[in-house]
Amino acid sequence: MSILQLLLFAGGLLAVMALGYSALSGPSTVKEANRRLQAVRYRHSESTDTKVESQLKKAIAARKPKTFKVAGSGSRLNALAGRLDRTGKGWTLSQYLYASVGIAVFVMVLLFLRTGAPMLSLAVGLFAGAGIPHMVVNFFIKRRTNQFNAKFPDAIELLVRGLRSGLPVTETLSVVATEVEGPVGIEFKAIVDRIRVGRTMEDSLQVTADRLGIAEFSFFCITLAIQRETGGNLAETLSNLADVLRKRSQMKLKIKAMSSESKASAYIVGSLPFIVFFLIWWINPDYLAGFFSDDRLIVAGLGGMVWMGIGVFIMAKMVSFEI
């Protein structure tokens, strides 16, 4: 049995296991129970903050984009361009593709010179070329999102002070664009520029909400849209929204602190076998040469990687929490 046949067999086995898991797992009873408890709390609570949060979640669920997980994207290339734009680095599609191809070729050549196994080098190179740029983009998106969420409640408080002092909404948005640093100031400056060239405030806010994909900013857009339709004290509404966002951020930090030990254990347990294998192979290639030539060892190695991947996936699900 050749290496290509073994890889195809392992890929087919993994696909069958994934399909079996998706078919037999069913909905999570714990999550369903939590959803029902939350629905009861929203329905019968007398708290103003709880009612506002319930309405915001319903509105966001109704307006959540479905196509390629990025609002307004009609193809996968547009969705990828949107993800690159969310990093705030100004990367283009051509730069991303060149980086992916360069990493894939570099890893393939390095591994082939080290092992002499063409199919293994091709498989690992393609995996590295597709995975490493994707993880880098996710890292920068997550970092920029955290920076935005850290400053966004302060920006809303600045809006509240401007409204209470008598300034119109568009002027307060300009104040936030100039006074708040970081991603918040950049995004509000783009909103103000769109308003100045003739677009409505709702359209300008929605364009930014679609680009960012941040739930907190969607709360803000929906709050302004509801207030313009129903009337009322906008400053008081935004003040309540800022308080809700601060509590949401505190809950995220609390969950992160409580689950940090479990995540660290999952990272160590999941990565240690691969790190040890790579170090031993790099120091003494002959000791592990059978994993690249002997069919039985190749099958054992692929099976071990599959089971390790399943274990890492389960541990990741155990320490993943939704807010």
Largest sheet, strands/sense/barrel: none
Structural class: mainly alpha
CATH class of the domain at 49-254: Mainly Alpha
| Uncertain regions spanning at least 5 consecutive residues | none
Q: Number of DSSP strands?
A: 0
What's the Cα radius of gyration?
25 Å
CATH level-4 homologous superfamily of the domain at 49-254: Type II secretion system (T2SS), domain F
Counted by DSSP, the helix tally is: 12
**Secondary-structure element order, as H and E?**
HHHHHHHHHHHH
End-to-end separation in angstroms reads 49 Å
Strand content: under 5%
Helix percentage: over 70%
Average pLDDT value?
77
Structure description:
The chain has 323 residues and is an all-alpha fold. The chain has a domain at 49-254: Type II secretion system (T2SS), domain F (Receptor-associated Protein, Up-down Bundle), CATH 1.20.81.30. It is 81% helix and 0% strand. It has helices spanning 3-25, 29-44, 48-63, 76-86, 93-115, 118-164, 169-179, 183-196, 201-212, 215-230, 234-283, 295-318. Helix 6 (118-164) runs antiparallel to helix 11 (234-283). The relative contact order is 0.08. The model has no long low-confidence stretch (mean pLDDT 77).
Features:
elongated; mainly alpha; 12 helices; 323 residues; Receptor-associated Protein
Give the helices and strands, then pairings.
Layout lengths: L2 H23 L3 H16 L3 H16 L12 H11 L6 H23 L2 H47 L4 H11 L3 H14 L4 H12 L2 H16 L3 H50 L11 H24 L5
Summarize the structure.
This protein is mostly helical and 323 residues long.
